[in-house]
Amino acid sequence: MKLTPIEKYIKDKVNIHKNGREELERYQLDKIKESITYVKQHSKFYREHLKDINEDSIKSLKDFENIPFTLPSHVKENPFGFLCVPQKDIVRIVTLRSSGTSGDEKRVYFTEKDLQLTIDFFKHGMQCLANKDDRVLVLLPGEAYGSIGDLLKKALKETEIECFVQGVMVDPKVTAKLIQAENINCIVGIPIQLLHLSRVENEIFKNKIQKVLLSTDYVPETIIKEFTNKSECKVFTHYGMTEMGYGGGVECEALYGYHMREDDLYFEIIDPVTGKTVEDGQYGEVVFTTLTREGMPFIRYRTSDIASFKTKKCPCGTFLKTMDRIKGRMENRIKIDEDEFIYMRELDEIILSFEEVVNYKVYIEEGNVIFLDLITLNEADFYKSSEKILSLIKAIPSIKKSLSKNIIEIVIIYSLDDIVINNTMVKRKIHDYRKRV
User: Can the keyword Chaperone be found in this entry's annotation (predicted)?
Assistant: First the structure.
């Protein structure tokens, strides 16, 4: 089993010699204190947010747990307050929309140095799955300077790996032709879009693709199983978000979980209710702190992503922490009764396991009517699978209990949408259209 290349990259950068974990954590503590000093000097938001914090009093990583969190709402309300450099030094601005409305926008700013740090991570992270014999297709935005596809292409160029950036997939047939023409054997893309590609262009995908890196959204286990068992390709997953500088962690060939970008980011898992750090092996909310960010640093930023740190070492033998695959976002659920919720990840594992389905939408309306809007290859496929899908969903414990109490109703319908792929990076979510009291 090959050691993750991320370890050597971090050891060289941090100048680690013998005591890997101990030296890394000492480096992280020093960088955390430097970052707090930096943001208090240069960021209007943190000057106020951390005014009662004396960084010299942080003697350990445990002490750091007393620092207040940064929330996504803080960024939405005052993105300029986070800037630590003049606007003229910003070379990339990313606007993040969670539901397509201006009220949900966040803006994240990057300097040239920030982008180069991401290229460095991508350069070594991609070596977990690709080498000079591979031809990589990136189905992520890549036209704009500093976009994720642009950074990936630059990183792969430095390692002499051939890379083609098509952008977010719109037409599977066009993508299939490119795969054939350029002899592509490795794809980086969005989980639900690559599932769509594999089901619409099954022969091309099965015969050509040997390796897949799934990124930008959480990855349902059923997608990994299908690609592995039916297409016989090796499936790697990547965890990152724009606020992290795109890259957060990536799996090595052991496929045991993400090895984290611990030179640039410090990760915690907290209890989302108490805010206290949980033990390794326990699930909670991912929180991160940037250690080397120049333009827009974040201190203890709450992500809403659900994950845990592994309690056992990765089979590759690294001293780096290993994070289990993300289980989705905390808010990607709907409340249907007191302490009873429906989670999108539960629906994913059922609905996406049916090969007739290429995507679906789920939303709840007044009267607790839950609509499952299935997007299938044709109407006949919908009738072939819909009753079985509905039966399995009704067996989910929270749904079964609520149905028995006549609290909810479930309606499964055939989507009238054309089978097209939205040219978007917005993550899938459950929509709640009920009026709030």
Answer: no
Q: Rounded CA gap, 436 and 426, in Å?
A: 24
Residue type, 49: H
What SS3 string covers 165-216? Answer: ECCCCCCHHHHHHHHHHCCCCEEEECHHHHHHHHHHCHHHHHHHCCEEEECC
Q: Output the DSSP codes for 61-87.
A: HHHHTTSPPB-HHHHHH-GGGG--S-G
How is residue 43 written in tokens?
């960021």
123/261 Cα distance (integer angstroms): 12
Bridge partners of 115?
Answer: none
If you write DSSP's letter for every residue of 130-175 in order, what string do you get? --TT-EEEEES--SSTT-HHHHHHHHHHHTT-EEEE--S-S-HHHH
Is pLDDT above 80 for 420?
no
Q: Does the CA dihedral 326-164-290-303 come out positive or negative?
A: negative
Give dist(CA 417, CA 373) in Å, integer: 9
Q: Which domains does the chain possess?
A: 1-326 (3.40.50.12780), 333-432 (3.30.300)
Q: Which two tokens stand for residue 198?
A: 């594999």
Residue 401 makes CB contacts below 8 A (sequence gap 6+) with 337, 340
- pLDDT tens-digit map of 302-356: 999 999 999 999 999 999 999 999 999 988 999 998 888 999 999 999 999 999 9
Residue pair 186/212 in contact (Cβ under 8 Å)? The answer is yes
- Residue 345 burial (CB < 10 Å; 0-12/13-18/19+)? middle
Do residues 416 and 361 touch, judged by C-beta distance below 8 A? no
User: Do the beta carbons of residue 226 and residue 198 sit within 8 Å?
Assistant: yes
C-beta separation of 320 from 6 below 8 A: yes
Cα 349 to the center of its chain, rounded Å: 17
pLDDT tens, position by position, 136-153: 999 999 999 999 999 999
Rounded Cα gap, residues 10 and 19, in angstroms: 13
Residues 6+ apart with CB under 8 A from 224: 214, 235, 237
Both tokens assigned to 255: 């496929």
List all residues 6 or more positions away from 246 whose beta carbon is below 8 Å from its beta carbon.
118, 122, 148, 151, 240
Helix (H, G, I), strand (E, B) or coil at 400: helix
Judge whether 272 and 279 are in contact, CB under 8 Å: no
Cβ distance 431 to 104 under 8 Å? no
The dihedral of CA 319, 320, 321, 327: what is its sign? Answer: negative
User: d(Cα 214, Cα 193) in Å, to the nearest integer?
Assistant: 10
